[in-house]
Amino acid sequence: MFRRRSILPALLAAALAPALLPQSAVQRPAITGVARIALKTNDLAAARRFYGHDLGFAEVPGPGAVFKVNDHQYIELYPQLKSEDEDRLINVAYETTDAKQLRDYLAAHSIEVPAAVAKQWDGNLAFSVKDPEGREIAFVQYLSDSQTGRQSGKSLPATAISARIIHTGFIVQDRAAEDRFYRDILGFEEMWHGGKTEDSVDWLDMRVPDGNDWLEYMLNVRNPTPKTRGVMNHLALGVPNMEAANQRLIDRAATLTEKPKIGRDGKWQLNLYDPNLTRVELMEPKPVQTPCCSPMKPPR
Predict the structure, then answer these.
(1) Beta strand 234-238 pairing with 189-194
(2) Of 214, 191, 206, nearest to 294 (Cα)?
(3) How do residues 175-195 score in pLDDT, each as one tens digit?
(4) How far is residue 73's CA from residue 57's CA, in Å, rounded to a whole number?
(5) Which tens digits make up the pLDDT trace of 205-259?
(6) Which superfamily does 165-283 belong to?
């Protein structure tokens, strides 16, 4: 009995060790970019037409409908939408070089984390946390022996409208709280901010610490309708030439409700909407005009 009682406290202490470490004892591993965005739909067939036919991405095996943008980025659709009032965004995931170390790092910074990092359906290591506004944010470490690793270089058809998700965005109500999480703890940095007027801040681009993808805070949004949430909670696909991308969509008879335009950030963009109103923004990565409101940091 004595031995059993003496061992249990030691085992408990070992299990809790990551959470008890001082902040400086665990270094943040690299966070290199957007890994995936997961969305709700109530019509997988319509989603497949939009992401597979109109946008030209290849569907790969997985739950729901999974579309491959490149070897490190995916768009996932799940038939979970039960009401038009629901938010379509399930989560956004970022790629890290070490999921376990990142989990321990977040625990050391008093972020609630799962008990352990686990392999997901695709064989990669991943875990999720909640940001200060309750949004699910995931982190993925790609493994060479996973389903995605074994499919490296495959399912990348010439029909794809884009080769990269360059950013995702969602509604932010409390910028200071979100900054404490994304900037102060995770290491994201402001790349550009702009607004509908020169002195307003309606959009804030926060670049990942070890890459060029970014998160766009969508600020000053009050009581959004389902359509407004779809506009704000969005993803952006980089295209090298907007005119060519627009023509490809026309040739595929895609539903186009808007025309290409130059945004406040000086970049060509074209807004598309999937069957459940989530905005998919096509964007040329480089400004063709001087961005409004603030200087834009150049790519790393």
Answers:
(1) unpaired
(2) 191
(3) 999 999 999 999 999 999 999
(4) 11
(5) 999 999 999 999 999 999 999 999 999 999 999 999 999 999 999 999 999 999 9
(6) 2,3-Dihydroxybiphenyl 1,2-Dioxygenase, domain 1 (3.10.180.10)
